[in-house]
UniProtKB/TrEMBL annotation:
Leader sequence residues: none
Motif (GXWXGXG): 83-89
Cofactor, how bound (note): Binds 1 heme b group per subunit, that coordinates a highly solvent-exposed Fe(III) atom.
Reactions accelerated catalytically: peroxynitrite = nitrate
Residues binding heme b: T95, K186, H218
Keywords: Heme, Iron, Isomerase, Metal-binding
Entry note about domains: Forms a 10-stranded antiparallel beta-barrel structure able to accommodate a hydrophobic ligand in its interior. In fact, this fold hosts the heme group, which is located in a wide surface cleft.
Residues in THAP4-like heme-binding domain copies: 74-225
Protein name in UniProt: Peroxynitrite isomerase
InterPro entries in alphabetical order: Calycin, Nb(III)_bact/plant, Nitrobindin, THAP4-like_heme-bd
Domain of life: Bacteria
HAMAP family: nitrobindin
């Protein structure tokens, strides 16, 4: 028993879900309806079936069983980014001593015209081992017909940035449209990113303008697809 899961279902969706995923697949999942005014609160119990993704609490199914969402057509020019990537890079800046870092990047989708993006990095020591955590960031890459891209990113260092750019031919180039920063954040004012496939690897270069310096290189990295 994986624990009960909760889902908000309208009556029609619940009937369809039961017809598609209930007895026919021989799984023991059951939906108990509880009237919540104009919503039905379904208590789903039983073992999750293959392809089921359940939240860390085990209470909320993040995706209906056995439903792989189809890629939204507007995401096609960004499809090369999809997956989990691991690799290493090098960083520096006129005000920063150069450093090596390890990085994990994940791009996923849920059938809507955006990618879900997260990145985590760690300093690499002289032996190439992962050391203290460095920057992380997360956000959404919104795709539009014709390869136009808008990216919304949040950083724990107090920045929120919106990029605009263009994707095509397994490359995407982005430039900041808006940067906002908290009162205590460093004086970061602009960024430019280029991502592209290098053979089967994902490579990127990142330039920034910060602390009174003009737009120039802060990072570059190359990552391998791990899933
Ligand atoms: C792979 C991602 C990144 C890594 C590994 C990284 C690493 C570093 C390191 C080690 C420093 C110097 C020490 C420090 O001040 O913490 C630094 C400084 C800085 N980074 Fe990054 N960084 C990354 C991404 C970014 C991004 C996306 C931004 C902007 C949104 C950014 C903005 C800055 C700023 C403003 C400084 C301060 C420069 C100064 O003090 O003069 N970094 N970064």
């Amino acid at each position: 028993m994986h624990g009960a899961a909760l889902a908000l279902l309208d009556e029609r969706a619940e009937d369809e879900w039961q017809a598609d995923h209930g007895e026919e697949q021989g799984n023991e999942r059951a939906v108990e309806k509880v009237d919540q005014g104009n919503l039905w609160l379904g208590i789903i119990s039983g073992e999750p079936v293959s392809g089921d993704t359940v939240s860390p609490t085990g209470r909320w199914p993040l995706r209906w069983p056995n439903m792989e969402p189809e890629l939204h057509p507007d995401l096609e020019p960004l499809a090369f980014l999809l997956g989990d990537w691991e690799g290493a890079g090098v960083g520096g800046y006129p005000t920063v001593e150069s450093f090596h870092f390890g990085q994990e990047i994940s791009f996923s989708h849920i059938g809507k015209p955006y990618l879900i993006y997260t990145s985590r990095t760690w300093r690499l020591d002289d032996e190439g081992n992962l050391a203290a955590p460095l920057a992380r960031e997360s956000g959404y890459w919104r795709a539009h017909a014709g390869g136009k891209v808008e990216v919304v990113l949040a950083h724990p260092t107090g920045f929120a940035e919106i990029y605009v750019g263009q994707a095509g031919f397994n490359r995407v180039e982005l430039i900041t449209d808006v940067v906002a920063r908290t009162e205590t954040a460093k004086e970061y004012t602009a960024g430019k990113r280029l991502y592209g496939l290098i053979g089967e690897d994902l490579g990127y270069a990142y330039d920034m303008a910060a602390e009174g310096q003009s737009l120039q290189s802060h990072l570059s990295a190359q990552l391998k697809r791990v899933s």
